[in-house]
Amino acid sequence: MGWYTPTSPAPDLAGTLVCGWSARTQGEHLLVPDACMDILWIQDVGIRVCGPETTAWSFTLPPGTESVGVRFRPGAGSHLLRTSAAEVRNIRVGLGDVLGSTWERTLTDRLDNASGHAERIALFENAVRAWRSRGPEADPLIGTVRRALARQSWNVGALADAASVTERQLQRRCNDAFGYGPATLRGILRLQRFMALAQSGTRTGLAALAATAGYSDQAHLSRECRRISSLTPSELLASEAPDWHGNESVVDVGNVQAVGPRTGEESAA
């Protein structure tokens, strides 16, 4: 890959960002959906907003190309960028396409002239603070859904009932914030949970990891892993994907371990 270095966000941004990161790429790379949106600067290209993905996709950049970015927690980026996540699902767009040319021109100039990766990440974090301070406030339902599905695989109807909304309302609000509905989000976060548990080392063997992550069995894990990442579970764990977030995670492994294998609210769907 060249190199890729994730860093923890500033403490005041921990609820908004999963991580910052810097990279120098070479060759082809496969990106696996994690329910996050990224905003990044690419050398000689500019700033791009990467929408939430539903399936894995690969990219290639010229050898030695440098890039720096920040990764939003699931559902945390769309309202700050003033766009429905569904409008940028599975695509990459310029910052000007969502926030206008003034933001894109000013931030690009600062990033192009920054002294290094740390300064560029700090510039992105300052931009996130500015976007957050101007409002509007995030939909409170989105944090509830993210925390619930990061912990366990709720049935969509039960999740709507627990949130005191209809399934149609839940679908619409999730679509705007995450880029897709709760069922798709559930599958993507369940796969992230599987990787986080494997990284933690508290479970060994695919069958035990599958059960703790909320799959009905190892075959269910294999099907979902292939569908979302295009890889087998073993191939996924050996790939770059488990290390993308550094010391951070889009799921809370401690809470997952406390829940343990399947509960009454979980669904094999």
UniProtKB/TrEMBL annotation:
<dbReference type="InterPro" id="IPR018060">
    <property type="entry name" value="HTH_AraC"/>
</dbReference>
<dbReference type="InterPro" id="IPR050204">
    <property type="entry name" value="AraC_XylS_family_regulators"/>
</dbReference>
<protein>
    <submittedName>
        <fullName>Possible transcriptional regulator, AraC family</fullName>
    </submittedName>
</protein>
<dbReference type="Pfam" id="PF12833">
    <property type="entry name" value="HTH_18"/>
</dbReference>
<dbReference type="GO" id="GO:0003700">
    <property type="term" value="F:DNA-binding transcription factor activity"/>
</dbReference>
<keyword id="KW-0805">Transcription regulation</keyword>
<dbReference type="GO" id="GO:0043565">
    <property type="term" value="F:sequence-specific DNA binding"/>
</dbReference>
<feature type="domain" description="HTH araC/xylS-type">
    <location>
        <begin position="139"/>
        <end position="239"/>
    </location>
</feature>
<keyword id="KW-0804">Transcription</keyword>
<dbReference type="InterPro" id="IPR046532">
    <property type="entry name" value="DUF6597"/>
</dbReference>
<keyword id="KW-0238">DNA-binding</keyword>
<dbReference type="Pfam" id="PF20240">
    <property type="entry name" value="DUF6597"/>
</dbReference>
